[in-house]
Known about the structure:
The chain is α+β, with helices and mostly antiparallel strands. Helix content is 18%, strand content 40%. The chain has helices spanning 16-23, 69-76, 89-95, 173-184; strands at residues 28-29, 31-37, 40-46, 49-53, 58-64, 78-83, 112-114, 120-122, 127-139, 142-154, 159-164, 167-172.
Amino acid sequence: MNVVPRDLMTEIPVSSADFRGAMRHLTGGVSVITAGRGKDITGMTVTSVTSLSVEPPTLLVSINRDASSFPLIRRHGAFGVNILTADQLDVAERFAGKGGLKGADRFKGAKWVTAVSGVPLLVGALSAFDCEVEEIMERHSHGIVIGRVRDIKSSMRTAALAYWHGQYVAVDQDEDAARLAEVSLPAHGRRGA
């Protein structure tokens, strides 16, 4: 493999619009990040959650530093990650700012429990994680937040909510597996064919 030395490369600026358009091709699981305690709570819809480590259990989330959640995460040193089910589209939209709701008003219309750290966790989420902040690295417009998982609440649901090409998409393991089986099996292998 030939690598071009950096000083010989021509810097071509990438526009925000081009970058955003290209990233729309990446399908992301939809989660709600929650922050704060008591009545001073807020949250936001994200697709930027990933596992960082299994030992110890650690998550990484990227949060815009202008978001209302960022100062509360910094102040309290904790946050919640709530992985949404396919039927929690209304929660995703509320926490994405649809309808203009902010702060504690975003939590109305869903059931929440208070985690040990004090952050709200969504009842019925696929999984909900109570995280303690280990480190925050600020880069450009965002903070990369590393959180040690202190508790997990999981449900028996299997249909997840994803985001792709600017739209929410339901991913249902049972239904999608059945559809794939129908189109992938040769006609002579299907029952009744």
